[in-house]
Design a protein that fits this description.
With about 1000 residues, the chain is an alpha/beta fold. Among the domains are: about 15-140, no CATH class; about 180-345, 3-Layer(aba) Sandwich (Rossmann fold), CATH 3.40.50; about 350-435, Helicase, Ruva Protein, domain 3; about 440-470 and about 480-515; about 805-979, no CATH class. The longest helix has about 40 residues, at about 100-140. GO terms for molecular function: ADP binding.
């Protein structure tokens, strides 16, 4: 066993043993009798821990053995809480006064220390007796069976990971049902219709609906895709439909301009925003004359359907609603006899099942070893054509591809009733098998996801930091804990236990969701293990044990009342609150709290946080409440705090004591001022959402350079351009950045506030190149020329810079960066007669390319940018015909991977025909590309076009769609970077 500090199998046993060993040290000066008791206690616990680790490898436990395990595990938690309180009392020393007051203070402290030593001696004796009795009980009842534990080799990151989940087209058996549904959705009939997709969980209903949605959505005026789940939040669903359906309509041209603007300004994170009746009326009026397509995913009851259906106006424009559900009666109720169709999704055929299974493991059936063919066929047969079951089994076997005995063992473990029915219990048995095969640390991390509400999008970084705070992650081979935690996250995706969300340009997921079937499984196991307790969902039951270790309260979507006095809160290590509530928990009662996450608790006031400073074990604090404007002045007393996330608060000024948080590794805010003394926070690895105001001292900027562990820095620059000593600030920042980039900095973002002007970035001389940087976002740091050190940034995959003039040399330097995937390049004063040429020898890995400037345009040569998916450029229409004589389409036809094209056309000095011809040439070129992207054109300076007698040829309608989607406005770009 790896000896993780805290796990579902051993509880806090490993952490406790470490702390007992520490108590035997000289600094605690315990009585010899107490030291003997601790030594005996430590020995007994070590033996028990070894047995607990063996028990963790057993799938079925004898009731006596299970009861003994549970008691020992709970006892370990209690002993650690006791030791933590003692250590805190012994070592927590507030600043002592001087003089006569200080003398009495020292005297009182010594008395308290003596009492603490006596108290711990008595407590240790009691705990020793309890542990000895537990040891004797094990012997009396002969709880020592023959145990065998098997080790599992975990591949931390599978190189096939991005390919396994990014493209839904990689699934098999979807073509026929997709085409059938497309015909039902787009059959030319102008009447209103509802199509219900029904089938058991795991058949791929959502995937199928999404494929139909993507293929047909462009044929409708507007569209939306929303998930309902078992506990629907009607307001959230309606707001999501409104937001998505109104997205293509520009407020300035829409007759409902005022209403749409008001809708778009709503705070969608707030559960109180928007009255249901008002939202219904808005939606009915808007959809009345629109041909819309709306997918309602995962309906569980007829009542839910009636509530959601009411605002969806039944017009005669050919509108369609696509519903997915697991319940046949619900599917039929959604489709009335007059206008609806029930589509029953069937399991995969044997051929498709085999194709999916072998593709997932080996790439194809031909690559499957001969000795595994027969057992593979039997496993596939037992999966019963359920895609989720097949994928789960394939992921389970992926690292056992050459071990036939493992395949046979897994085949024999699958329930025998699977071939006859496809109900949720069978699916759960398959998923339970996959869960049992997880290493202990991944089981622990997976069960922790039971604290989140259904369909919740779980941010990867927040989740990993919570795992760290709970003690679930152990440093291996000197790797950073965040890096290790991301490996855990990726491995859970690799084993199909969680679903990736928000895939970044680098192919890595930024968040995840838990499938309903997996959530049912882990909630049940978490309750059985007394690992976590959830309140607010009728499917979540309180653990039978009286002591709560991790508590989650979900106020979203329904009335929930929590009787806090009736709960034993002193042992809670993690408290998570989701949604709005008038009830605030008694923070002072949570004596053992390590993690506190308050999300959208709008009732929360500044005063409610006063007792947080007494949570001496707190490691993770996240506050997502807009009413919070200040932190307690004593926040620096939280000596164990590692993560402080204030991004969804209005805190601008931080308490002076915050620099006392010497263990803080992640600090995130939303415009908080850079504190003086920041250099003392030596453990910081991430510092984001910080602003540098005129009131800040240059010393604070210089101290940034002392943060040798800093990996991420995101700040906003508010030093005014008119300030006389502005150079001192920029030089101080340059000095600090020079130190940071030579140590550990991987991500740097500098955003300029109003009146702050450009920062002369290239005038800074750094002693070494920023070779570790992976992201560099400095949109208003203007280069006179690209500095020499930029050519050595071999790890850089995202870059946003501004240059005085974009030249061929600049394109060559940036084009040679081997890892660059996302580039935004802005030019200030290019020659309006210049044409830039993108050759096939540069930007070979680039996927996103944005180039903005005042030049004529650019040409993509044959073979250039073969991996680029998205391009945004500015082109001058005047004299374009002569400038691009050989490439009237700018060479767009050469971009074989292009999926999204945005072209801003500067119409100044051009004739209408010149603009129209340019747009037509580009449109024709995109039609020849494999992905058939639809170009988006945006005409600028139309009022300065040359007047002539030529007929006016306005751009086709689709040229003007989705303008509000485009990210050209710098303020919007900055907001996206700070998310």
């Amino acid at each position: 066993m790896d000896g993780f500090m805290v796990s579902v199998a051993t509880g806090a046993m490993n952490s406790l043993i470490d702390k007992l060993t520490m108590l035997l040290g000289q600094e605690f000066r315990l009585h010899k009798g107490v030291q003997r008791d601790i030594a005996l206690l430590n020995g007994e616990l070590s033996c028990m821990n070894a047995l607990l680790e063996k028990l963790a490898g057993m799938e079925v436990l004898d009731p006596q053995m299970m009861e003994w395990r549970n008691q020992v595990r709970e006892m370990a938690y209690d002993i650690e809480d006791c030791i933590d309180r003692y250590i805190y009392q012994l070592h927590y020393e507030p600043q002592r006064p001087t003089g006569i007051v200080g003398f009495f203070h020292d005297y009182v402290h010594k008395v308290k220390e003596l009492l603490a030593r006596r108290a711990v001696a008595q407590q240790i004796k009691v705990l020793k007796d309890d542990i000895v009795e537990a040891s004797h009980r094990r012997k009396r009842y002969k709880i020592d069976p023959e145990l065998y534990s098997e080790t599992t080799n975990v591949v931390l990151i599978d190189p096939r990971l991005p390919a396994l989940y990014v493209e839904a087209s990689n699934l098999v058996g979807i073509d026929i049902p997709r085409d059938q549904l497309i015909n039902l959705v787009d059959d030319g009939d102008q009447s209103f219709k509802v199509i219900s997709i029904v089938g058991v969980g795991g058949l791929g209903k959502t995937t199928l609906a999404n494929e139909v949605y993507k293929k047909t959505g462009g044929r409708f005026d507007c569209q939306a895709f929303v998930s309902v789940s078992q506990k629907p939040d009607v307001k959230k669903i309606l707001r999501s439909i409104i937001c998505q359906t109104m997205e293509p309509y520009h407020a300035s041209t829409n007759p409902d301009k005022a209403v749409i603007s008001q809708i778009k300004k709503q705070d969608y994170s707030s559960t109180e925003a928007g009255d249901v009746e008002w939202l219904i009326n808005i939606l009915r009026v808007f959809l009345k004359d629109k041909r819309y397509l709306i997918v309602i995913d995962d309906i569980w009851s007829t009542q839910e359907w009636m509530t959601i259906k009411f605002p969806l106006f039944e017009n005669t424009c050919g509108s369609r609603i696509l519903v997915t559900t697991r319940i046949s009666t619900v599917a039929k109720s959604c489709c009335s006899p007059d206008h609806g169709t029930v589509y029953e999704l069937r399991p995969l055929s044997e051929a498709d099942s085999m194709c999916l299974f072998f593709r997932r493991i080996f790439g194809s059936e031909d690559l499957c070893p001969v000795n595994l063919k027969d057992v593979s066929t039997e496993i596939i047969k037992k999966c019963g054509g359920l895609p989720l079951a097949i994928i789960t089994m394939a992921s389970l076997l992926a690292d056992k591809s050459d071990r036939r005995e493992e395949w046979v063992r897994i085949r024999n473990s699958i329930g025998s009733g699977l071939e006859k029915k496809y109900d949720l219990e069978v699916m759960r048995s398959i998923l339970s098998l996959s869960y049992s095969d997880l290493p202990l640390h991944l089981k622990t991390c997976l069960l922790y996801l039971s604290i989140y509400p259904e369909d919740y999008k779980i941010n990867m970084h927040q989740l990993v930091r919570r795992w760290i705070a709970e003690g679930f992650i152990k440093d291996k081979s000197g790797r950073n804990l965040m890096v290790e935690g991301k490996c855990y996250f990726n491995e859970l995706i690799n084993r199909s236990m969680i679903q990736p969300v928000d895939i970044g340009i680098d192919g890595q997921p930024k968040a995840c969701r838990v499938h309903d079937m997996i959530l049912d499984l882990i909630v049940s196991k978490a309750v059985d293990e007394n690992f976590s307790t959830s309140i607010g969902d009728e499917t979540h039951r309180l653990a039978s044990q009286s002591k709560i270790r991790r508590l989650s309260v979900d106020y979203c979507g329904q009335e929930v009342s929590v009787s806090w006095p009736s709960l034993m809160l002193a042992h809670v290590r993690s408290l998570s609150i989701f949604g709005y509530s008038e009830q605030m928990p008694p923070i002072s009662e949570f004596k053992a709290l390590r993690v506190l996450d308050l999300e959208s608790s709008l009732k929360l006031q500044n005063s409610d946080l006063n007792n947080v400073v007494n949570l001496f074990q707190l490691r993770y604090l996240r506050i997502a409440a807009s009413r919070i404007t200040h932190l307690p002045e004593q926040i620096g007393e939280l000596q164990f705090l590692e993560t402080l996330d204030l991004r969804r608060t209005w805190i601008k000024k931080l308490p002076a004591s915050i620099v006392k948080l010497r263990r803080l590794s992640c600090f995130s805010a939303s415009g908080a001022r850079l504190p003086d003394g920041v250099g003392k926070m030596q453990s910081l690895q991430e510092l984001s959402g910080i602003t540098v105001y005129d009131e800040c001292s240059t010393n604070s900027l210089l101290e940034l350079g002392n943060l040798n562990s800093l990996r991420t820095l995101k700040l906003t620059w508010y030093i005014r351009e008119s300030r006389k000593d502005r150079t001192h600030y920029t030089d101080s920042l340059a000095s600090s950045l020079g130190k940071l980039v030579s140590s550990s900095l991987e991500s740097l973002s500098i955003i300029n506030g109003p009146f702050s002007g450009y920062i002369p970035f290239d005038s800074w001389s750094w002693s070494s190149s920023p070779h570790l940087l992976q992201e560099l976002y400095i949109p208003k740091c203007c280069f006179q020329r690209i500095p020499d050190w930029m050519a050595s940034m071999n790890n850089l995959y995202r870059l946003c810079v501004r240059s005085k003039q974009v030249t061929k040399q600049i394109l060559q330097i940036l084009g040679d960066l081997p890892a660059l995937l996302d580039l935004e390049l802005r030019s200030e004063s290019d020659d309006p007669k210049k044409i830039l040429i993108i050759s096939k020898y540069i930007f070979r890995c680039l996927k996103i390319f944005r180039l903005y400037g005042s030049f004529v345009g650019l040409i993509f040569e044959d073979g250039s940018m073969q991996k680029v998916r998205e391009i945004s450029v500015v082109v001058r229409a005047h004299k374009a015909k002569s400038a691009f004589a050989d490439h009237p389409d700018l060479g767009i036809r050469n971009l074989t991977s292009l999926m999204d094209l945005n072209v801003w056309i500067n119409c100044e000095g051009a004739r209408v025909q010149e603009v129209t011809v340019l747009e037509a040439a580009i449109t024709d070129a995109t039609a020849l590309l494999p992905n058939h992207p639809t170009p988006h054109f945006f005409r600028e300076n139309e009022e300065n076009m040359v007047k002539d007698d030529l007929p006016n040829h306005p751009a086709p309608h689709f040229f003007r769609e989705n303008e509000e989607k485009m990210v050209k406005d710098e303020a919007h770009m900055q907001e996206k970077m700070l998310e």
